[in-house]
Amino acid sequence: MVQYMTARLDTAFAALSDATRRGVLEQLGRADASITDLAERFDMTLTGMKKHVGVLEQAGLVTTKKIGRIRTCRLGPRRLEEATAWLDRYRRRWDERFDDLEQLVEELTRLENNDERKKRK
Amino acid sequence: MVQYMTARLDTAFAALSDATRRGVLEQLGRADASITDLAERFDMTLTGMKKHVGVLEQAGLVTTKKIGRIRTCRLGPRRLEEATAWLDRYRRRWDERFDDLEQLVEELTRLENNDERKKRK
Q1: How far apart are alpha carbons A15 and A22 in whole angstroms?
Q2: Which of A67, A74, B7, B61 would you label with B28, given CA atoms 20 to 30 Å apart?
Q3: For the segment A3-37, what is each residue's pLDDT rounded down to a tens digit?
Q4: What does the pLDDT look like over B68-79, one tens digit per residue?
Q5: N-to-C CA span, chain A
Q6: Cα–Cα distance for residue pair A99/B20, rounded to 1 Å
Q7: How many angstroms separate the CA atoms of B109 and B81, rounded?
Q8: Do B14 and A19 touch (CB under 8 A)?
Q9: How confident is the model at residue A117 (pLDDT cuts 50, 70, 90)?
Q10: Which pTM does this prediction carry?
């Protein structure tokens, strides 16, 4: 189960690591499109676009359906829940560490000031 | 500017597409660690771990400092803000599209029911 989720996170983040693939997802968020439409819009060969769509399909982010000669793409069933959850957790921890560091600096400054005051007396 | 952000998103998502690298970030969220510590913890060669840390460093997610023979790693300055923002935007759009689809289905069901009623009269 954990391994399954790990692999899914790998695939999801890898799918998102390319600007064209993110662009395709944004475009499909507006309207469904054929692979030909997408290739034209992103100024890319059909073969190149098919590869990108393949990666997105593997990650469950896009589904495609062929009717006649036209393969239409739309947003898939996966909503990147795990990816979002992972990022949220990570950022929370980052903030906590940063807060700890800030407290430490404040504490040290306070101690130093006390020291200064004592010396002056 | 936009291109700079695009490249940064590519690097960030690519850095996150590996379970070991995500594990290293989680570990450094708990405490700083040397590359040797990390290699041991993740049951990996020093060379392998150095590569992973290099990818995280490039993405600004980790910083390292060498004191004597030991290179210590800690969480870097980048907090994956852009990655989180992109994901949030994407999920919002996904939800909107899903809501639209639901409304359409409701609308069609209502029309169909009206039709049925008319026929029965």
Answers
A1: 8
A2: B7
A3: 777 888 999 999 999 999 999 999 998 899 999 99
A4: 989 999 988 777
A5: 65
A6: 26
A7: 42
A8: no
A9: confident
A10: 0.79
CA diameter of chain B: 91
Q: Which two tokens stand for residue A36?
A: 């030909």
Work out the average pLDDT over B111-119: 77
Q: CB-hemisphere CA count at 13 Å for A109?
A: 6
Q: Does B35 touch chain A (CB under 8 A)?
A: no
d(CA B63, CA B72): 8
Q: Do A10 and B17 touch, CB atoms closer than 8 A?
A: yes
- Residue B14 and residue A13: Cβ atoms within 8 Å? yes
CB contact under 8 A, A87 and B86: no
Contact B52, B24 (CB under 8 A): yes
Residues A31, A28: Cα–Cα separation, whole Å: 5
